[in-house]
Amino acid sequence: MARKATQPTPPAPVNPDLIDKALAKTVCEGDIVNFRLLFTPFSPARDDSPEQFETEKYAYLVPEADLERAPQFKKALAAVRRVETRAHIQQELEARRPAQLPSDLLVLLGDNAVRVGKYTSAAEAYELVRVRRRMQDEFFAQADVALDGGDMAKAVHGYLIATGLAYDYAAFPEPLPAVPDYQSRALMLHAEYPPNPQDCVAMQDPEAHVRTALSYLLRDSQASARLDARPLKARLAFLVELVGRLEPQWPAFATRYREASAMAREFGERLERGQTNGAGAKPSLAEEIEEAFGEDPRGITAHLLDRTIAGGEWWQYLKELAYKHPAAVLFVARLAVGDYEVLVPRYRPDSPLVAALGLAEDLSGNSRLS
Amino acid sequence: MSDKGYVNYFDILGLGEQAKPGEVRKGYKRKMKDLVLEISRVEITEERRARYLLAMAKLNAAFYVLRNNALREQYWQERQEVMALEEEWRVAAEMGGDNADALRRRFERKLRDFLTRYVEEAMLEAGRDRECVEASHWDAAHERHAFRILRHYRQSSYQEILERLPYYDVTPPQIDWDERQRAVASILAGEGG
Question: Are residues A99 and A122 in the same domain?
Answer without folding.
Answer: yes
